Amino acid sequence: MRRNNFVERSLTGAISFLKDSVFADEYASAKGFLQSLDPRIKAFTFVLFVVTAILAKSAVICLILYSLCLALACLSGIHMGFFLKRTWIFIPIFSLFIAIPALFSIFTPGEAIFTMDVAGLKFIITRQGLSGAVLFVSRVVTAVSFVVLLSITTRHFALLKVLRVFGVPQIFVMTLGMCYRYIYLFLEIIQNTYLAIKSRVGTSLGYKKGQHIVAWNMSSLWQRSYYLNEEVYLAMLSRGYTGEPKLSEDLKSGARDWAWLIFSVAVSAFLLMAAGRGTV
Length: 280
What we know:
Blueprint: H1 2-22, H2 25-28, H3 39-55, H4 59-75, H5 80-88, H6 91-99, E1 112-118, E2 121-126, H7 127-152, H8 156-165, H9 170-201, H10 207-238, H11 255-277
Antiparallel strand pairs: 1-2
């Protein structure tokens, strides 16, 4: 019972997390600072911040940009716990594990700042390795935070429209739009399938029988996904879909948008110049 409850809780928690991560439309429709900006200018400035974080040679610059990202999230009415969970899980944590080996003198020789003995082996953490690992993780966290903030504060079809404005190929935008709509249905199918198996089989299930049920459901889910994909695409074509995202309102730029653009360019230029001079 405990093992089955653990599987059920894990599956339900993972599905709920993915739903909340992908379908946070309430934040995109809220009245906040970023929601009021032109999606084209907002996307351009966020890409500029990401490029600045990638080109930064100091973790201080990434820290300044990350602080700006958190401030923008607060001004846009985004709950900080919701935002941090979606920016620190998966990619940043994975990058942290990647950066751990760079701490030691075996991979990054330099000035030793800490030495420890483990099972007769000496591990030395160098200053160069620590600064490199901190810079790498800070770059990843900052870039991921800006990308997530852009997706949360921008409506889905507006973001697709911006991709087309920036010259992203139509086939890529069309595939991305269809996948976004299909993910929710796919998660619902997984949840309903698990509930159906549990209601018919119960909590106790043999190993071989469980393998048979899982394999059969994987095959069935693949077939349903394939046919459903074809039917959805044909239905979209029959309703006049041409592959171009359409918005009920035209994209317009105002004084606030241009002021934000000037501010963003000035901040990025100042940080890059300060890094080049070695003052930051």
